[in-house]
Amino acid sequence: MTAQLLPLSSVGNPAAAGPPVLHVCVTCRQGGPAMDCPPGAQLLERLQDLLETERLAGQEPSAMLRPVACLAACDRGCTAAIAMPERWTWLLGHLGAEKAEDILAYARLYAASAKGTVMPSRRPASLANMVLGRVPALLYTEQEEP
Question: Are 126 and 120 in contact (CB under 8 A)?
Fold first, then answer.
């Protein structure tokens, strides 16, 4: 299954942006040795499966996936970043495939927020320690490919 990617032509146009973009580090090994399918890639695969289930049920996707090679938070992996135009971008860590459903629930809350802030009390409990940092809203047109 392939990742759902955000068309770069929609960046900078909030009306065309659709769901948030979830940048998932696919090289994340959670501090372990090199392997064929590291935990970050397993997380991406699980998210893809869940988004496919949403699609088959006729639902709008909770997020668009974009695999990235590294988010430079290796000691706090698995990591991802969630972004939308005109909203805070959040660097998320301490993730894993077992939290994929909760990550998509968080993505829906993030998309529904005015500025990209989801209060800790509204996040799924499994994601209590996920926030590693945030970046002010910035419109960009390029992303490093893995």
Answer: no
Alpha-helical regions (H) of 22-124: 39-56, 100-112
Cis peptide before 28 (omega within 30 of 0): no
**How high is the pLDDT of residue 28?**
81
pLDDT of residue 76: 87
Predicted structure pTM score: 0.80
Helices 39-56 and 100-112 cross at an angle (nearest 10°) of 60
pLDDT number for residue 31: 64
- Both tokens of 115, joined, read 């500025």
Spans of the chain, pLDDT less than 70: 1-17, 30-33, 138-146
| CB within 8 Å of 87: residues ≥ 6 apart | 20, 110, 113, 115, 116, 137
C-alpha distances (whole Å) from 41 to each of 44, 52, 78, 95, 146 are: 5, 16, 9, 12, 12
- Token pair belonging to 34: 């090199």
